[in-house]
Amino acid sequence: MTFELSERVQEVPPSGIRRFFEIAEERDDVISLGVGEPDFSTPWAARDAAIASLERGQTSYTANRGTRELREAIGEYVGDRFDLEYDPAEEVLVTAGASEAVDLSFRAFVDPGDTVAIAQPSYISYEPGVIFAGGEVLSVPTTEADEFRLTVDALEAAGADEADVLVLCYPNNPTGAIMRERDLEPIAEFAREHDLTVLSDEIYAELTYGGDGEDGVDHTSIATLPGMRERTIVFNGFSKAHAMTGLRLGYALGPSEAIGAMNKIHQYTMLSAPTTAQHAALEALESCESDVRDMVDQYDRRRRFVLSRFREIGMDVFEAKGAFYCFPEVPEGWTAEEFAEGVLREEGVAVVPGDVFGPGGEGHLRISYATGLEDLRKALARIETFVEDNV
Ligand code: PLP
C-alpha cells in the first residue's frame, strides 16, 4: 500500500540544502558557517531554573497560553525593550518556538486561495507554512542595492497591493538586513492603505549592531507605528538572543481577537508550550540581560571581522547590521550553488547558497557568524585560498 500524500505536502519541495549536508558528511574537517543557531549555551541562571523546576516536579501542562508569570514577564520585557504594549492576559501567546507561532498565524489568518506576500530572501519556513495553510505565496524580492530592505517600489512591482497578508522578517535571516523606523513608515502606510495583515517575525530583535549616533541602531517593531498594532502579529522567542534553541520557546503578540484565534488552534494541537522551558524563559527575562549583552558584543566583534575579511578577499558584502548573518556576493561567473559546493568540496567550509532563501538571494551566500572567532578565522582563510585558486 502507498500512502496518499496530501497535495499540499507534495507541493513543498525538499529542502535545497540537503545535498550539502551529504557532501559535508564525506569530510571530517568541515567548518560550518551554515547553521542558524547560537554556538553559546543557554545562560546558566536559565538552565538552573529549568533544573530546579524539574526537581520540584513541575512537569504538568501549563495554561494553554503559557504561565501567567511568563506572560507578564514577556509583556514587561517587550515594553521596556521595544515599546510594545500587550496585555499578558489576552494579547500574549507562549508557543513551542517562534516556529509554532508562525505556523499558527498562517492557519489562523489564511484561507485557501488567500495571497501571502513574503519579503525575500527570507527564512525558509514561511513559504511551506503558507502552502500547508492552503494560501498562495507572492514573492517580493528585495535587493542588495536597497541593502535588502523592503521598499514600497518592490511591493508595488510584485503586486502586493492585492495581497491579504504580508510577512516581514527584520532583522533578517538570511541577509542580516535591518529596517529602521524611517524605512518601516512607508511599508506601514502601504499596509494600512491596502488593508494587509502584517506578520512580523522579530526573533532577532535583540541582535542589532552598528555603533553610535545616526547609525546606532536599536530594533523598531512595525507594530509601534501608527495604525499598525491592530493589524500586526509580532513573533519573538528565546532561541536566538537567549541561546535556547533546543528548549523550544517562543511567543506571539497581537490584538486579543487575533491571539485568541491562534490560541484556539494551539490549544487543540499543542495544549501548552514546554513547561520546563517556560521556567527557563522566565528566569532568562528576569536575570540574564547581561548574558544577552555579552553574546551580542561577541556577535558584533565577529560580524566586523567577517565583513572586513570578505572585503580583503575581494568579495562584495553589504554592511549587515542585524541577526548573526552576512550575505556576500559570489564572484562574477559563479552561481551561489557552484561556489558553495566548490568551497565545501575543496576547502571544507559549509555555507548556504542564497537562492535557498527565495528570489533576491541568487548570487549570494549566507554566512552565519554564530561560530567562535577561531573557527571563523580558519574558515575565512580557507575561503581566501579557494578564491585565489579558482577565481
Ligand atoms: N524565525 C526566524 C527568522 C528564524 O531564523 C528562526 C530560526 O532559524 C525561527 C523563526 C525559528 O525560531 P524558533 O527556534 O523559536 O522556532
Question: How would the blueprint of this fold be written?
Answer:
Layout: H1 7-11, H2 18-25, E1 31-32, H3 44-55, H4 68-82, E2 92-95, H5 97-109, E3 115-120, H6 126-132, E4 136-141, H7 152-158, E5 165-169, H8 181-193, E6 197-201, E7 232-237, E8 250-253, H9 256-269, H10 275-287, H11 289-313, E9 325-326, H12 336-347, E10 349-350, E11 352-353, E12 365-368, H13 373-390
Parallel strand pairs: 1-10, 3-4, 3-5, 5-6, 6-7
Antiparallel strand pairs: 2-8, 7-8, 9-12, 11-12
Helix pairs in contact: 3-10, 4-10, 5-6, 5-9, 11-13, 12-13
Pyridoxal-5'-phosphate (PLP) binds next to helix 5.
CATH architecture of the largest domain: 3-Layer(aba) Sandwich
Tell me the major beta sheet: 7 strands, mixed
Cα-to-Cα separation, first versus last residue: 51 Å
CA radius of gyration is 21 Å
Strand line-up of the largest beta sheet: 2-8-7-6-5-3-4
Unreliable stretches covering 5 or more consecutive residues: none
Question: Care to describe what's here?
Answer:
The protein has two domains: 137 residues, Aspartate Aminotransferase, domain 1 (Alpha-Beta Complex), CATH 3.90.1150; 231 residues, Type I PLP-dependent aspartate aminotransferase-like (Major domain) (Aspartate Aminotransferase, domain 2), CATH 3.40.640.10. The chain is built from 13 helices and twelve strands. The strands form three sheets. Strands 2-8-7-6-5-3-4 form a seven-stranded mixed β-sheet, with helices on both faces. The mean pLDDT is 95. It binds pyridoxal-5'-phosphate (PLP). The site of pyridoxal-5'-phosphate has 13 residues, from helix 5.
